[in-house]
Amino acid sequence: MSGFEPYAELAGDYSDKHATACPWSTARDLLTRAELYWLSTVRPDGRPHVTPLIGVWADSALHFATGAEERKARNLAANPEVVLTTGSNTMSEGLDVVVEGRAERVTDDRRLSLLATAWEAKYGPEWHFDVRAGTFVNAGHSALVFQVRPRKAFGFGKGARFSQTRWRFS
Questions:
Q1: How far is it, in rounded angstroms, from Cα 85 to Cα 168?
Q2: What is the domain partition of the chain in residue ranges?
Q3: Which CATH class is domain 7-168?
Q4: Is 34 helix (H, G, I), strand (E, B) or coil?
Q5: Rounded distance, CA 146 to CA 153, Å?
Q6: What tens digit of pLDDT does each residue of 17-64 get?
């Protein structure tokens, strides 16, 4: 995040007595290298929708792509508030991170080109995207690109010292 460190607060009631707050840099590193994220959106009728997806952390935000007719895109059109999660599915080690924020479309072709390069560098040539008219294009299909800047985030440390850290962004 360009040197920015949000305020970190340890939730003592949910943490080992010897735990310390996790630094944002640790969570940011996890968000950068994670291969898979879970996106939670809300359907127009209020029911939740959760789906796994790939993404790229860049410019202090997590970015993901979806087809305009997919459920998550239709949900975001009605309500852009989301939760993104990533981490490890073990109790004995690791860190889980939960990011709350607002999904906003990225339509600037120059910025999308930079993101497309980052996507391919992270996931390989099968995830090559061209950029056209404010979208990613691959094999004749277009995808909308969204960014989520954290408004609030939580880190759940696991292992010998369970911890819960809350990061507040301004």
A1: 16
A2: 7-168
A3: mainly beta
A4: coil
A5: 18
A6: 988 889 999 999 999 999 999 999 999 999 999 999 999 999 999 999
